[in-house]
Every structure is written in C-alpha cells, then in structure tokens.
C-alpha cells in the first residue's frame, strides 16, 4: 500500500507468544459464556443478559482478529484495531435499539437466572482481564482486547446489580439501565481504540525510511 512502510518492528517472539496464549484463554472463556448467556437470556427474558451474550460473541470475534493480526506490522495491527473499534460502536447502537424494544414490552426478567449466570460471566471476565492485564498499555490491538475484558467485567457487576434491582422491584427498569450502561461502555471503548489506531497508522505512514 502506498505510503505504508511495512518494515516496522513487530512484537518480539516472547511477547507475542505470551499475548497469544492470553488471547486463547480469553477466547475459550468468551465462547463458552456466549453459549451460556444466549440460553440463559432467552429463558430469563433479560435484556442485559442477552446483550451481554452478544458482547461475549463480539469479544470472541475480536480475539480471533487479534490472533490473526498478531505478528503483522504495526500498520496492519492498527487496521485490525480499527475494525474492532468500529464493531464495538455498532454493538453499542444495537444494544440501545434492544433497550428501546424491551422498554416497549415492559416484561420484567427472571432475577435468579440473571444472578446465577451473571456470577459465572463475572468470574470468566475477571480471569480474562487478569491474563490480559499485562498488555493494557501495548499497541491499539493489545489495548483493544484489554478494554473489551475490562468493560465486560464492569458490565457483569452491573448485571448482578440489575438482578438485585429486578428482584426487589419486580420491574424491568434495572435490567434496561444496565443494558444502557453496556452501550455507553462499548461506545466509549470503541472511540478510544479507533483514536489510538488512527494515530498509529499516521505514525507508520509518515515515518521516513532509513
């Protein structure tokens, strides 16, 4: 590609291997919880739980992209991060639409199922966040997977709070509030990733060849 100097340094083999192993752990956890939350969200009627299952699916796709991009030049890793950031923003818009739809129906979800699956999801995301914590200050590709896991852990705490709120009030509003919070987190995280990825692409394009 014109203006792209693909000779730029990729991550060291040791660093890449550790990051790859962390990605595989996170990928397996996210795929497993995606299936669990899809079933649990359908049974409980929870918008936040169902939205979280879609988030697990999106994160799994993000980890797959990261695994493919690992070892490529900074330019192409930044392109992969741009795609992931865009997906996070699209997901946020989708969740907002789901909240509006759920609000129009007004049926409160089943709190016990929400709480049980929320605990499982929180444990999985804490493990993912811990194994990816070392890479939180890396390039946009590494930072994006850390932000995904961090946002998911925050979202799962919110799901548990929503389950308590639904149980106490017998209202769908706590569930819808959590889904809205997830949308804000996804939108904010996506913007951060896109901003950093664009800066990295500009840096690569305008760095002179030695």
UniProtKB/TrEMBL annotation:
It is found in: Membrane. It is a multi-pass membrane protein. SUPFAM superfamilies: Cation efflux protein transmembrane domain-like. Signal peptide: none annotated. InterPro entries: Cation_efflux_TM, Cation_efflux_TMD_sf, CDF/SLC30A. GO terms for cellular component: plasma membrane. The chain crosses the membrane at residues 21-40, 60-78, 85-103, 115-133, 153-170, 176-194. Residues 23-197 form the Cation efflux protein transmembrane domain. It comes from the Bacteria. The keyword Protein transport does not apply. One of its GO terms (molecular function) is zinc ion transmembrane transporter activity. PANTHER family: CATION EFFLUX PROTEIN/ ZINC TRANSPORTER, RE54080P-RELATED. This is Co/Zn/Cd efflux system component. It comes from Acinetobacter boissieri.
């Amino acid at each position: 590609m014109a203006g792209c100097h693909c000779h730029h340094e990729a991550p060291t083999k040791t660093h890449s291997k550790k990051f790859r192993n962390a990605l595989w752990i996170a990928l397996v956890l996210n795929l497993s919880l995606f299936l669990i939350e899809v079933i649990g969200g359908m049974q409980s009627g929870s918008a936040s739980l169902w939205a979280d299952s879609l988030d697990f699916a999106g994160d799994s796709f993000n980890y797959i992209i990261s695994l493919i991009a690992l070892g490529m030049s900074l330019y192409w890793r930044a392109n992969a991060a741009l795609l992931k950031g865009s997906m996070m923003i699209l997901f946020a818009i989708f969740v907002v639409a789901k909240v509006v739809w759920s609000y129009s129906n007004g049926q409160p979800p089943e709190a016990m199922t929400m709480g049980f699956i929320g605990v499982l999801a929180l444990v999985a995301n804490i493990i993912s966040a811990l194994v990816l914590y070392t890479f939180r200050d890396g390039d946009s590709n590494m930072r994006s997977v850390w932000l995904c896991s961090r946002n998911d852990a925050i979202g799962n705490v919110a799901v548990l709070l929503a389950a308590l709120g639904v149980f106490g009030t017998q209202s769908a509003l706590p569930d819808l509030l959590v889904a809205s919070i997830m949308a804000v987190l996804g939108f904010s995280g996506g913007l951060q990733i896109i901003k950093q990825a664009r800066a990295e692409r500009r840096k690569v394009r305008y760095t002179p060849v030695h």
